[in-house]
Amino acid sequence: MDKLIYYQQLIKTGYKQAFALKKVFILRVLFMILNNLMLLYAWHLMFLNFSTIHSWTFNDFMFMTGLVVLTFSIWPIFFRGIGIHLMRLIENGELDSFLVIPRHVLFSVGCSVCDPSGIGDFITGILLIFFSGLVSLSNLPMVFCFIFSGICVFLTINILISTLPFFIKNSSDIGERLFYMFFNIAGYPGSIYSGYLKLIFCTLLPVGFISILPVELMHNFSGTVFMFLIVASICFLSLSIFIFSYGLKKYESGNRFNIHH
Amino acid sequence: MKPYLLAVLMNMRDQLQRSREWGIFLIRIIFLCFMILIFHKFWLVLKAGETHMVIDPVSFLSYLTVGAGLQFSRPEGRVKEIEEEVRTGNIAYRFIRPIHFVLLNFCECLGVYFARLPILFCVGTGMIYLLTGSFPPINPLYLPIVLGLLILSACFASLCMVFIGLSALYFYDPLPFFWIVQKCEYVLGGLFFPIIFYPEWFQKICLMTPFGWTGYGVSSLIYDFSFDNALTVFLHLIAWNALLLGALLALYKTVQKKVCVYG
After folding, report:
1. Which of B246, B147, B125, B71 is nearest to A177 (CA)?
2. How far apart are CA B136 and CA B57, in angstroms?
3. Does the interface predicted TM-score (ipTM) exceed 0.85?
């Protein structure tokens, strides 16, 4: 319970800080919504031309985009510190102040930074999933499971990328690029992938956990695939935390103690 | 002119010599390959569902390579750097230097483009050949003209970045505007899908904006080259570049008057 209160306070402080610049805060949220809707509109025009893309309708695409954007948004809202911020801390040897706190380093750093643009993503995600027409009361629990799995996948990728500086020097910029590459790949209709590409995206590079499997499961439910999705997401996340903890042993302090908020 | 030329050359050399830059660039190259692979699949899926496709796969992928090449060559970090200088007021120290801030940043951006674009195009062409067995359908004699127009596109993108960075004077955090410009390039510029896939009324809107010319205008020449088209694209690019440069210089003058040292 204490841990939860600690993380909650960290997030609260981050938002207080972000909200100090009220106009910037609102601008980021609104522009992120506009940003997402613009891209969706381009796809809408494409679907007007082709009606379906390998059996996927625009509604399927809307659901997928909603899921991608919503699950992605959890990272900037709650764990923005994981990723580029954490990589820079490791690179500069400035992680010491987090290491002395009796809390998990990963989540302490993660919750210490927030990005209001995530709220824009969150709102867009909820709206898109709701208006996709695929969600009903009966499949709502399943949709929550997809969201949970998506969050696990995005966190996994972020954590794995954050461990790069432990093993490769000056890799923070590379890591940042890698993460956005992953996010961009997740933004295309999952129906276009088949064969080896689908296999890669559903195993090694689990983009398919967000952009392929959920929509397929919404149309043709399979208990085995559903269980695979959930169990594999949890395993991926656990593995990434384990790899981070292993990497942490290789951390080299820069002997620079900073006071963090 | 010499310092500006040196700025272009130095940035080109930096891009090609520093291992850190190569690491980032390598990710971009991998991403471009992924994009070409995904869009090849995409074309096959569309072809399977439709009896009539307005564009063949080699043209489609060549178009994508030009558009994506331009995007992936962009030195995105520049916006943040300029924004930081305006926000902290450090830009004031640049005013006394005998080199124009706007032109210097513009040249530095161009240097990055010059270093990255040719490599991305070579990789893209290789990928297209691997997937389709053909090279981009453009007569090599016309290639210098397309490259020249691509440089004009890169100039527009560079000016855009400097403009957004300087607008930190008014908006404090101009990054959201950068997102919107990027999306305009995707949607109105037909970055990944040629705008011929869009309804006619939307195509007209796209060509009323600069993005329609910097994106679709230049990229479409790779599969549909004619001197008339090239001249039209050239005139539009010159006009939009001149317009943006004018606006940018006006904004810079305001920054010179209003910027606060120490933010």
Report:
1. B71
2. 10
3. yes
